[in-house]
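Exercise: predict the fold of this chain.
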Amino acid sequence: MKKKALFRTGIYVIVFSLFFSISSVSVLAKTNQQNIAQSYYKILNNIISKYGISTFDNEEGLVYANMIDFDKNGVSELYILYLKKDNSRGYDQLKFYQEVWGFEKSELHKLYFDDQGPDGLISDRSISITSTNKNSYLIFESSYSTGNGTPPYDNEWSLHRSIMTVKGGKLIEVAVLGYTEASKVEGEGTKYTYTIKTNGKVKNISNKEYNNYVTQYNLKNQKYLIDGDAGSPTISFDASSNVKTINSFLKRLKNMM
């Protein structure tokens, strides 16, 4: 009888311990979610209080905000894009600013920051986001037409896409996919070149390999945020309903707190 009683007691202890562990994990997950939502809400609210919400290219304010799990670890990062005036050249000009925020070891960190203004072809950079089962990616895309090339080819045009994601608490470049086409000066004929840059090394690849990378990074389904537009960047999507969209996102964050 004592053995049976002890056996039953042991089961109760195990069941209670499992219930307590599951409950503790659930409470911790909820607490972390609340902290994340509260932190992200504060960041966005700070930007909106300073600059407002932008509904077109020539207006200061928050342009886009979203929670994106770049490294698919179950904790979403905050990506934000906003317009504000810059006077570093002695006159006002609007620049796009983008930031990525995330949590590393339960602490909030700014993982990435940069700005982009109307600085001619050197800033001919479009920005988009894409996602796969393994990662989400921030894509910087630039295209150039040089008007010349290596004889017998001329009128060289190239497209490069820098593919970035979060790893180890940082937004890093994981690959640069390149495509170049050049037509002959005289007669018909076009030369195509495909390249991939990983770990700082560039190598030529075949058309089939290039298309495999396009599929791997889901580059046929990019959500464009900025159109480089020959050095004069503009918003790539209809921002006229931004006030409603961003307020809805803020409400979603509040509901998570």
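Check your answer against the key: The longest helix spans residues 2-51.
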